[in-house]
From TrEMBL:
Keywords: FAD, Flavoprotein, Monooxygenase, NADP, Oxidoreductase
Name of the featured protein: FAD/NAD(P)-binding domain-containing protein
Annotated FAD/NAD(P)-binding domain residues: 13-236
One of the Pfam families matching this protein, by short name: Pyr_redox_2
Keyword Flavoprotein: yes
Species of the source: Cryoendolithus antarcticus
Keyword Hydrolase appears in the UniProt entry: no
Cofactor(s) needed for function: FAD
Family under the similarity heading: Belongs to the FAD-binding monooxygenase family.
InterPro entries: FAD-binding_Monooxygenases (IPR050775), FAD/NAD-bd_sf (IPR036188), FAD/NAD-binding_dom (IPR023753)
Gene Ontology terms for molecular function: monooxygenase activity
Amino acid sequence: MGSMGEPEVPYTEVILVGAGFASFTILNRLRKQKIDVKILEKGSKSGGIWYWNCYPGARVDSDAPIYQLFDKELYEDFTFTERYAGGKELRRYFDHVEKKWNLKEYIDFDKHVDGAHFNEKTHEWHVECSDGSQYRCRWFMPCIGFAARRYTPPVPGLSNFKGDTYHTAVWPQHGVNLKNKRIATIGTGASGVQVIQEIGDKAKHLTVFQRTPNFALPMNQQKLDPEEEDRKKKNGDYEKAFEDTRHTFSGFRYDFIGKNTFDDTPEEREKFYNNLFNEQGGFRFWLNTYDDMLFDQKANDQAYDFWKRQVRKRVKNPEKQELLAPEVAPHPWGTKRPSLEQRFYEVVDQDHVDIIDIGKHPIIEVTETGVRTDKGFIELDVLILATGFDSVTGSLAQLDIQSTRGGTIADHWKDRLQTSMGIAIPGFPNMFFLYGPQAPTAFSNGPSCTQFQAEFVEEAMRRVVKDGITRFEATDEAENDWVKRMNEKWDITLFPKAKSWYSGANIPGKRVEPLNWAGGMVEYTESLAKSLENNYQGWHTAKVGA
C-alpha cells in the first residue's frame, strides 16, 4: 500500500519496453498463458525501429515471408507487396497486428522508460518513466533492440550549420522535401546507401562523405503476386519458411552449402558466385556460400575479387571505382554486414554526385553555409547524418537499470561485455532482454532471433510459475562460460580484422570486443534450452519470503 495521500504504484505481472517485434512476440505468447502483460513505448505508435525509420528509402534487408511475426492468424489476411518490405509497408503491417491482436489495451504510448530497480523483499521491479509515471512488475523485459541509441559523430562546427540537418534515426515523421537541394550525406552504411540511392536523382548536387566502402549486394527486389502468396500460405510454404529459420546459421531460409571455396574449380566458383550474386540476390552471396568464406583469408579473397568485378562493371568513373570497390579490400569481405542496394552504384556514378574519402580528406569544419575539407568548400542546403547507432550495447547501457549488487548495466559492462546467453545478466533477476548483446542479433534478423528467444522466455516462465519461483537470476558461472564461448567463436573467424559496429569499433573510444554471438542460431537455441535442465542449472532461483 502507498502512504497516506500517495497513489499505489500499479502492478502488472510483466512489463515490456518497446512496441516492436520482440515485445509483440512475447506478449502474444504470455497472454495465452493468462499472464498479465503491459508494453511501455517511447513513440506515439507501435513498430519499434520501423516507427522511427522513416527516412527516404528505408527498407528491410530480410526477404519475405520471414520478416514478420511467425503467426498464421496474422499472415492469413496480410500480404506484403514486395520481396523486401519498405518502411511504410512495415508500419502498415504493425497497424494490422495491433488491430488483429487488439493490442492497444496492452500498450502505453509516449512512455520513455528512464530506469528501474529490483525490490529484494517483494521480488518486484519498480519502473520509472520520464513523465513521472511508475509501474511495478514481477518480470521486466527491456526489448528495445540493438539500435535504440543513435550516434552523432563529433564533426567540428556541426551546430553552426544554418541549413537543415537530419539524422536518419530520427527523421521527421512528416517527411522532407529534398528536390533540387544541395545535399551532403555523412556515412555509407545501410541507411546511407538507402538514402543516397533514393535522393540522388532529386538532388541538385549530392556530396557523399564515405569512411569505408560498403560491400553492398544487389537486392533483386521483386513485386509479390498476391494470388501466388495466397497459394503459398495455403500449401504450407509460409510455415515451412518459418521452420527453416530454426535450422540455419543466421535464421534465414538458406545456409552455408557444406563445402569449401577451393573444392570447386575457378570455373565452377564463377558460375556459383554469379548465381548467388546476380540471379538470386539478397544475402545469399554472404550467407548461402562456401563454408570457409568467413574463416579463411584466401577463400575470402575469392569472394571479394568477384564482388569487386561486379561493382566495377556498374561504375564508369575510374576514381569512383577505386573509392567504391578498391583494388585492395580494406577488410575481409562480409565481416561487416553488407547492405542491399537497388541503384546505389548507378546513382553515385552520376556527374552531380561526388564521393569524398573522409579518412583522407576529413571535414575540417561545418560553417553556417556548408562544409570545408582540404579539397575546398562545399555549399549546402541540407546535411544528412547517416551515422547509425551506438549499436547492440548502447540501447541497454543508456538506461538507469539498477543491479541488486550496485551500479547499472553500463557499470556491469565497465571492464568487459558480459551476459548469460545474450538474454540475462547476473544481478538483474527476473529481467530478460531480446535482440541485444551477445545474442545472434546482427548475424540474424529481428523476427527470427526474437521468435526463438521468446520461446525460451515463455518456457522459462511456464516452469517457474508452475514451481512457485518468484526470483530467477542468471548465475555468474553461466555468464563467464558464455563470454568464453563468445570469444572462442569470434576469434576463429575473420570478423576481428574489420573495424565494425559488430565489435563497437564504429564509436570512438568504445572498447572493441565481440558484441554478437557468432556461433549460429542452432547452437544458440540449444544453449538456451540446456540452461533450464538439471533443476535450472544456469540460474539461481528463490521464492518470495523463503
